[in-house]
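Treating backbone geometry as a discrete language has practical consequences that deserve illustration. Part of our work consisted of pairing the sequence of a single chain with a tokenised description of its backbone. What the numbers capture is local backbone geometry rather than side-chain detail. For completeness, the protein is quoted in full, as a sequence line and a line of structure tokens:
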Amino acid sequence: MLTDHFQLSPADVEARFQNLQVRREQHPDADDPLFRPIDADDFRTNGDNASDFSNLRQNGLVRITFDLPPNIKLIDPATNLPSAETFVDVWRAVPTVNDVALTGPDDVNPWTRGPNAFGGYQLDGRVATLQEQALGALTNHAQVHQPPSPRLLDDLASFQRVLFTNARVRALADAVKEGTVPLPDVDPPLNELEQQGKVVFERACSQCHGGPGQSNGQMPVVRFHDISSQCPRPVDTARPVRFAFAACSPQLVRNARTYEITLPNGSKLRRTSSDPGRALLTGFAGGVPAAQDDWNKFDVPGLRGISKTAPYFHNNSAATLEAVVDHYIEFFKRVEANLAPFAPPIASTDGIHFDRRPTLEEREALLAYLRKL
């Protein structure tokens, strides 16, 4: 939505829904393309008569449907046995398209497998072009009756490429396009606290949020990541606990499903997630070290203008920037708890010490800098 920095927030969804109900009091056939049956919670049972838009209204999430890979089956919660379902619905946020000219496919740091090993669009990087992304939105969500013309899709892509958080970011995009070296620094003037936060950001965040668009993992850090933002969240069973993520709300936990995965050696394992991410594209969901599979993996989003685009993560599960920073503090703790003494690049600057995690004393400085991006 233009009025919401070209993203979709739960608050604005609810406002539009209530406005639609008021209009329908006078005009029963009043319509809003946001509320198509396909994005209703009860679409699978009620079809075109579906009317329960709880995931949209409460969470700001839309339905994305994937064919299940051949080695992955859904578990029927009633029988606890593999079901005959051949597809799965997951619910995802609609992130801002501001600064999209600085994100998308590139030519560095490829993932080990496709689709789009060099990145793409959508939260899992599965879409190669802005035109393809627009076509998917028009056909799969707005459910247009006539296919859009290539000219219309090109126009939409051109429009998105000139949407920027501010003029400084647009100047950066122009410099990248023209091959200017060195690239301009797009940060505004920073006070002492914000400058301290930038130092923390460069140590704790830039290994994943790198490059001009702050959306590329920097080698040897991999391109796609599981940041434990799915529901339900990992829980530490050790005592005393070593990490403690904020629990997902009940309206998000309800989207979790259990999957049975057949590994290459024929053995099976079960995993539960509200959204397995790229594993739904590739079927790589176990049997190798977690960093090498696709379970719960998503692309890295850009961060420019982040202070204006709450809520956050692929499922809108973090309501504030404070919640995001607190989540990552626990994320780094979990990495250390699971991998020590091995210190991976995502959590270590030297391969020996777990030194990337923001400390509680650095929290306010990091937040101050994030608000200036």
In short: The beta strands are 62-67, 72-76, 81-82, 87-92, 257-262, 268-273. The radius of gyration is 21 Å. The chain has one domain: 2-370. Residues 321-339 form the longest helix (19 residues).
